[in-house]
Amino acid sequence: MSKEEAKLWGGRFTGGTDPLMELYNASLPYDKKMYKVDLEGTRVYTSALSKVGLITPEELSEIHRGLKVVEKEWETDSFVEKPGDEDIHTANERRLGEIIGKHIGGKVHTGRSRNDQVVTDMRLYVREKLDILCEILSNLIKVMTGRARQEIDVLMPGYTHLQRAQPIRWAHWLSMHATFLNDDLTRLKEIRSRVSRSPLGSGALAGHPYGIDREYIANELGFEGVIGNSLAAVSDRDFVIEVLFWGSLVGNHLAKLSEDLIIYSSAEFGFVQLADAYSTGSSLMPQKKNPDSLELLRGKSGRLFGHLAGFMMSAKATPSTYNKDLQEDKEPLFDNLLTVEHSLLIATGVFSTLKINSDKMKAALTMDMLATDLADYLVRKGVPFRETHHISGEAVALAEKENLGGIDRLTIEQYKNIDSRFEEDVLNVFDFEQSVERRTAIGGTAKSAVIAQLDFLDLQCN
């Protein structure tokens, strides 16, 4: 049999293929990682063929025996790839035929196309990876909430515009980023459900001519349902785009988290210190300890978004059903999944080993950060907030003018000169712990509110 005839599609062609085209067309170098799900799909598909009488019980037994041999070869790295193995489907079917004979091996593709086969493999592979990512992400959130519980009494500045704003708990900062990641976890579970729909049995595009039981196939492969239109089944790559978007959004959240920690780890802040395991040194300056793990997390967010943008451009405006453009889905998808997995593991390591300097966090708190609390003091006495905001601003301006070093240094007399409604108890405002504890509403900085946030996050992860 000539090389062209050996191809799954070779019967139509009499001329040879340009060697560069062979290379350009091949996907085995990267899609062979789907060998296991491809073999599992064939196992279930041939069982379904047997149910409609297209494969005898004896042939089915031989096919399943051969599939186990092929799987063992992949697992032991003894599978021999050969010229003409365009993709994992071609390679597996070729090897199966060598083991059990081409007569029986030639029946496994009856009524099946690589169009429905490849997207089945991808959905099975992605579903498996999403389950792993779900576990890793859940663990990261638990590590963060665990730290938050242990360090809940540590206070630090909260920032807007990278300017000191109001006092918060370090645990509240941890809870914020854990909340973003928990939303990612929720989205992941939703996407997983949409991934878990079976296209197998749709053929090239028009459906199956032998009345195969697609629901049986779906159930055996653990899918949650069947894609009800054969045209949509073979061409749908929305699940790929959703996964790429999800990875890009996770990357964005990890980048935001990393940016904060990079700033906090600088000598100017000194709030946190990364473990040596997640830092590197300088080739020139011996004193340097660089937060490379965090910078890589931040940088890889661009890589993840690039995969999304690139495949969106490949997928847009393709004609109906399968087109070879869709082969461009695998490399960005596989790299996205691997990059997100590694990034989440690195982030987990960072938070598991991170040291905090609570004294420096506390020292960074300044009394001007309680200006809003000063306005709230008058609100509690019945003064409209718009008026109290202005009055508090006057107090800040006076303290700056007198070079007092903080609004807590103003005397009672000075406060009364600003507004007669200030009383002796105004000085009680200037307590950072009381400031955070006043914010007891859902989502606030009070200890009870933060614990409620952590309880919710932990519940979501279980």
Automatic annotation (TrEMBL):
One of its GO terms (biological process) is L-arginine biosynthetic process via ornithine. Residues 369-437 form the Argininosuccinate lyase C-terminal domain. Its EC number is 4.3.2.1. Pfam families: ASL_C2, Lyase_1. It catalyses: 2-(N(omega)-L-arginino)succinate = fumarate + L-arginine. Keywords: Lyase. One of its GO terms (cellular component) is cytosol. InterPro entries: Arg_succ_lyase_C (IPR029419), Argininosuccinate_lyase (IPR009049), Fumarase/histidase_N (IPR024083), Fumarate_lyase_CS (IPR020557), Fumarate_lyase_fam (IPR000362), Fumarate_lyase_N (IPR022761), L-Aspartase-like (IPR008948). It is an enzyme of class 4 (lyase). Residues 11-306 form the Fumarate lyase N-terminal domain. Belongs to the lyase 1 family. Argininosuccinate lyase subfamily. This is Argininosuccinate lyase. It comes from Wickerhamiella sorbophila.
